[in-house]
Amino acid sequence: MNPIAEGLEHGRLPPLAEVRRNLDIRWYRCPIERRTLRELIEPSDLRGLFLAAGHLGLWGLTGLAAYHLFALEVWWGFLLALFAHGTVASFFTAPHHELCHTTVFRTKWLNEAFLRIFSLFGWLNFHVYRFSHSYHHRYTLFVEGDREEVMPAAPSLHFLYLLQLFTVNVTGGYQSRGLVPTLKNFGRLALHRLDNPFNSWGPELYEGHPREGRKAVRWARLVLVFHAAVAAASLAAGEPIVAVLVSGSVFTANWLRYFVGVPMHCGLRSGVADFRKCVRTITLDPLSEFLYWHMNWHLEHHMYAAVPCYNLKRLHRAVARDMPAPRTLAGAWREMRDTWRRQQTDPGYAFDTPVPAPAGDGAAAEADPLAASMGDLAPRALAERPPDVRSAR
Q: Residue 38: inside a domain, yes or no?
């Protein structure tokens, strides 16, 4: 049984309101000059547009190429273009993540507009994610509060799973969204079933927050109506390939998104108040880093989450002496697979990342709202710690 579900069933995990009230983690953050941090936190509409329009542009170009080659019946070219199209689309989770933090654009309506575009085409529910992801940042790998990343997790290289990732992802898995679970998830949400809205989250996510739950339900219905309309229009026009390219692209060729997404937390220590121990940074080639919206600098993102993604490499340079060296993608996978093999006989084992001795009182940064900011990720319902139950009574 999933450790989250098991913990809730046996009463070992407290309600989330109680977690927010009582679990106050004093995270270690690498010291950085406040002036430097202020410069890094400044968003740029131009850089945001380069990422957002560039990503959508690549998706559009690969889609048009696939459509054209399909019409010409150049099947080998069509399959290659479809593979590229799906690879680009599978990374729609990256802009969805960054835009939920609202740190990409200086102009807020641009942030909200692109968030809805990527969420609509990417089969993503930003209302659920904004609500749940704030817990992931506050309580990273603390099982009481983080139900987004639950360790241990398997960095699977099973043949049948890889076959799906290189073709059509049907069943999904860790860091991989399959067609069937996505449709099932959106269908349940559309019917106002909030018992499993995302990842390992259960009905406890929206306990005491019915208004936020209704927002997630409305968006789920809109996404389903939109994709149903795309399918109907495509069939009516005698062009079913359009529905495949628009609505099905995110479930095609998920391989690269899987390989770069798994290393962020997999195999690392849970329950430690040091991001350097529970988050990895990896180096990537320029195209993969662009598609991933620079989230390969993931340790830096967790440590100072208000810094826009395109400034994370500069942030790394500013605090590099107090950080572990970034892993390569291949090195991270070797590390994870070695950890996973050891966990088969020692389930409590996790890789303990060697880190430099603390460069200063990094825990003091927790008291600085600028350093501890996550952008405008958390809805107002989660912005403040809930009142003590006894006083509420």
A: yes
